[in-house]
Amino acid sequence: MPDELDPDLRRLVNVIADALAQAPVLGVLLKGEERISSEVRGMVFGAGAGVLQLSDDAFEEAEHRLLATLQQLADSTTATAGERLFAAEAGDAVRLLDVCRTRFDAVLMNPPFGEPVPATKPYLRTAYSWLPAKDTNLLAAFVGRGLELCKPDGYLGAITSRAGMFLTTFTDWRTQVFLDTRVTALADLGYGVMEQALVETAAYVISPGRPQPSHTASFIRLLKDTDRPCALATVAANARAGREDPRVFRVPISEFAAVPGSPIAYWMGPFHEAALHRLPAA
Predict the structure, then answer these.
(1) Residue 269, Cα to own-chain centre: how many angstroms?
(2) In terms of CB atoms within 10 Å, which end of the chain has fewer, N or C?
């Protein structure tokens, strides 16, 4: 660690380096901003700051001090090549953390799906406790993280595999993340939407915050439509004009809890608990 950094900044850079060790493989899934915010609180308020809320101004002041010091080090005529590289990498890390600290009006994603890099699994299971217990799927982590990056009244729009709507391994994700939000709309698209990806897909818009018991979402079933872009546009036009469309299902989110595992079987109509007890085991 270069001697030019004062003790507070030296400690902060050490924490950044440790917190971002897996950033190249985790990207925004790494919740480094939480740890850095705690360290900056200590810089601003002193040891024992605890859970004091750190204002944006205080964080930005500490961030500015760090970036200015690192830039000074990088520009120094006495700096070694290693010190300049260190300063550049730390500066990039601070800017990544600044992005992750920001909360957005809208987050849009087409996240990767499938297994994460094996070395990242322990971190992901700790940071995202509701990840599928088997066949850890990255789409679940990205959707959950995207919601964290939204403002309380913001929206997340995603197109992903539709596996999370039904598989029992996604039960915790469905109940603790997807169905615990204000689901606005979901278009059930099926195969042939993502080029060269042999998965069935769904596109949806959700918003952070627990829904009211009466909250109702719109589900659009386009599995049998050959021209889904045109079909989706037609459904949207019908909705704006107040015309009924048999491909649209409006379902109170609370109804999905009536079935064990909360599969998003929106097309089944109203769920009745007495009838469910008579259903044969799957």
Answers:
(1) 30
(2) C
Distance of CA 278 to the CA centre of its chain: 38
- Closest listed residue to residue 192, CA positions, set 184, 183, 201: 201
Query: Distance between CA 161 and CA 218 in Å, rounded?
Result: 18
Going residue by residue through the chain (282 aa), what tens digit of pLDDT does each one get? 455 556 666 666 676 667 667 777 888 888 877 666 666 666 555 554 444 455 666 666 766 676 666 667 667 666 666 666 666 666 676 677 777 878 999 999 999 888 888 888 888 999 999 999 777 789 999 999 999 999 999 999 999 999 899 999 999 999 999 999 999 999 999 988 877 667 899 999 999 989 998 999 999 999 999 899 999 999 999 988 989 999 999 999 999 998 899 999 999 866 443 333 344 443
Residue 177: count other Cβ atoms within 10 Å of its Cβ: 20
